[in-house]
TrEMBL record:
<keyword id="KW-0614">Plasmid</keyword>
<protein>
    <submittedName>
        <fullName>Uncharacterized protein</fullName>
    </submittedName>
</protein>
Length: 65
């Protein structure tokens, strides 16, 4: 099992949503457990900057740090 986030096409207007290039917006408040067997093909890769922004947003949403 892995943790996943929903990626939406339009900016949801939340500081806890991170832009992932042309893929859309990762909404951190939608973190959920996902079975690896239910994952499809890779849609793209986040840049180092996007990964860091996601890390910071997850820490804020989950009250870590």
């Amino acid at each position: 099992m892995v943790l996943g986030l929903q990626v939406v096409e339009r900016d949801p207007g939340s500081i806890l949503a991170v832009r992932l290039g042309s893929l859309g917006w990762a909404v951190v408040t939608t973190v959920e457990a996902v079975l690896k067997s239910r994952l499809g093909k890779v849609a793209g890769m986040a840049t180092a900057e996007e990964q860091e922004a996601l890390n910071q947003a997850l820490k804020a949403a989950l009250d870590l740090d």
